[in-house]
Amino acid sequence: MDWKNLPGGGNIEDRRGGGGLPGGGLAVGGGIGGLILALIAYFFGVDPSIVTGGVQQPPVQTQSQTQTGQSDETYQFVDRIVASTDRTWTQVFQQSNRQYTKPTLVLFDQYVQSACGQASSATGPFYCPLDSKVYLDTSFFATMDRRLGGGGDFAYSYVIAHEVGHHVQNELGIAEQVERKQRAARTEAEQNSYGVRLELQADCFAGVWGNSVKGTDAANLTQDDIREAINTAAAIGDDTLQRQSQGQVMPDSFTHGSSQQRMNWFMKGFQTGNPNQCDTFSLPYNQL
Ligand SMILES: [Zn+2]
């Protein structure tokens, strides 16, 4: 993937270099704040309960590190991918006479304050619908390289496009409807099932973005790139993550979908390029 050929111009907020916590820090860790974050933020593939554990300890204020600024490669990369998703979704929304409000991506390290609460690097990438921002600690890319499917630039792009997919759901009012259904759910399994549908749709939306990049000669997307994204989708399936952490798989507690489901829905979006194919809510749950 030749991402450097893609034009930049995304909304990027660079909070790297010790800007994570406001002085005094709001006391939201672990209690209500953590709970709210777990409920309303949408996570990439990491168990939201990590959030509560992750922010209880007030972090040591870090010295302001070297300000990386807009010239470093990570910034450039993220900026181009976000700008690319902006173009994709602006076009899709235009086709149905809607206006797409572009999200902001916040780059951070260690800790970050979002409208959904505080989060740490351990949280993994997430989207907060209250401020319409995607939060990304770029050390997550290194985590992907080491143990989540092997990484690669198109795999990183898939992570960003998945979070942007949650923004699209927010823009379309889907997230709100799902939240209502989740609140009305009688069992935890039922509640989780809505979460899985939402996550798989975000994967499919990421695929829709991938399809639009595939059509751009400049991006030069290869089979290896597609394999990277598939490997990531497989590595962050709930069944795979559970097997690694607990040694067994409990489908009722799935919140993101299985490896197979995540790969399938990403590919559905990628092959069709049509967001209407991403209806993960009409199918019976066992046919997702
Ligand atoms: Zn997600």
Automatic annotation (TrEMBL):
It holds the Pfam family Zn_peptidase. The keyword Chaperone does not apply. The keyword Transferase does not apply. It is a single-pass membrane protein. The chain crosses the membrane at residues 21-44. Keywords: Membrane, Transmembrane, Transmembrane helix. It comes from the Bacteria. It is found in: Membrane. GO terms for cellular component: membrane. This is Metallopeptidase. It comes from Deinococcus wulumuqiensis. The lineage of its organism: Bacteria, Thermotogati, Deinococcota, Deinococci, Deinococcales.
